[in-house]
Amino acid sequence: MTASLSFSELSLPPIGFGTGRAHGLAGIESLHSAFDAGYRLLDSAFNYENEGTVGRAVRTAGIPRDEFIVTSKLPGRRHARAEATFTIEESLFRTGLDHIDLYLIHWPNPRVDQYVEAWEALIDARERGLIRHIGVSNFLPEHLERLETETGVRPVVNQIELHPWFPQEAAVIYHRERGIITEAWSPLGRGNGVTADPVIERIAAGHDVSPAEIVLAWHVARGVVPIPRSASPERQRLNIAAAHIELSAEEIALITALGRPDGRLADQDPAVYEEF
Ligand SMILES: NC(=O)C1=CN([C@@H]2O[C@H](COP(=O)(O)OP(=O)(O)OC[C@H]3O[C@@H](n4cnc5c(N)ncnc54)[C@H](OP(=O)(O)O)[C@@H]3O)[C@@H](O)[C@H]2O)C=CC1
Ligand SMILES: O=C(O)C(=O)[C@@H](O)[C@H](O)C(=O)CO
């Protein structure tokens, strides 16, 4: 594993694990195989309805609790201050843990315009020790700036859509300059075909690895933390091992150049998209 990223008070492993579809006993089994492969950064959300599965997997892993960074996220329908507070408490109760390591606002929902009070609830919950670190997801620079201007507290993480057809160059630079860690959701493009791109296939053949591993190595090389999801123990192992693959500057640039104006997976521009 390469050195951990440490732009802020939070250090993250180079690659985390997406738990989007991990539920129930099958989810716990899948999480335990992911832990065997070495994953310690886990991405969950109130809306995934699996904070219980993730918490139980951590509690039954036989691995010291402090090795894990358990993440969850506040849904858009709970941005009002009092609702945000009890939702964070509910997230924590669902995990069965005594704290959540990283808690994010899932989407800014700018039209609703309550993300600043949601942020105040996260700050308060951090002060109460319920959560250790606070960040956001799908925030644009204007949203990040408003949080800092109105509360004086900058998010430590922004988790955004990011894959080779949507490389988010400006956001990655913006975050880096401000010490905000960029996490990449759907880092493999969630089956959108990017791993069959001829450029990525050619680079993969040169390294004798799969295209998915090259995509994950590209994220790591850009200082981005990908959180790939896989139900397959074999692919879980391959994915986390991708942190060891070294790409040349030219290979990194070739992959970044695959970005497309319409590269998003779905119509989810955070400036207008709303998710509750
Ligand atoms: N903050 C936000 O708004 C969002 C956050 N997320 C987070 O990001 C995580 C990951 O994103 P997700 O949308 O799941 O998409 P990913 O880009 O992680 O793609 C997941 C898909 O890729 C397949 N896959 C995984 N590894 C490989 C491999 N080595 N080779 C070939 N195929 C592979 C998986 O299949 P298989 O299981 O068969 O291996 C699965 O179908 C989510 O689980 C969630 O935690 C996601 C969306 C939005
Ligand atoms: O999965 C998540 O975290 C989301 O925020 C979803 O919106 C996700 O992007 C999705 O399911 C889109 O259809």
Automatic annotation (TrEMBL):
Q: Which segments constitute the NADP-dependent oxidoreductase domain?
A: 28-258
Q: Which CDD domains match?
A: AKR_AKR5D1_E1
Q: Which residues form the active site?
A: Y48
Q: Which Gene3D superfamilies match?
A: NADP-dependent oxidoreductase domain
Which PROSITE patterns does the UniProt entry name for this protein? ALDOKETO_REDUCTASE_1, ALDOKETO_REDUCTASE_2
Q: Which Pfam families match?
A: Aldo_ket_red
Could you list this entry's UniProt keywords, alphabetically sorted.
NADP, Oxidoreductase
Annotated residues that bind substrate are located at: H106
Q: Which GO terms describe its molecular function?
A: oxidoreductase activity, acting on the CH-OH group of donors, NAD or NADP as acceptor
- SUPFAM superfamilies per the record? NAD(P)-linked oxidoreductase (SSF51430)
Query: For site (Lowers pKa of active site Tyr), what residue positions does UniProt give?
Result: K73
> Which family does the record claim for this protein?
Belongs to the aldo/keto reductase family.
Query: What name does this protein carry?
Result: Aldo/keto reductase
Organism per entry: Mycetocola lacteus
